[in-house]
Amino acid sequence: MKGDKKLVSKPANIVEISKNKAQEIFNQVEAGTLTIEEGIKQLSEALGIKC
Fold this sequence. Notes:
Number of helices: 2
Distance between the termini: 44 Å
Strand content: under 5%
């Protein structure tokens, strides 16, 4: 149909995905594979926020 647009939506589980990414970053910082500064940078990028 003319005028119909497909809406792009976030996945229904976006909160769970963000939570998992954040937990992975925290685990890497705790394990010493990331510095705190690197963790903050990755966390802000994963969550789409600016620090």
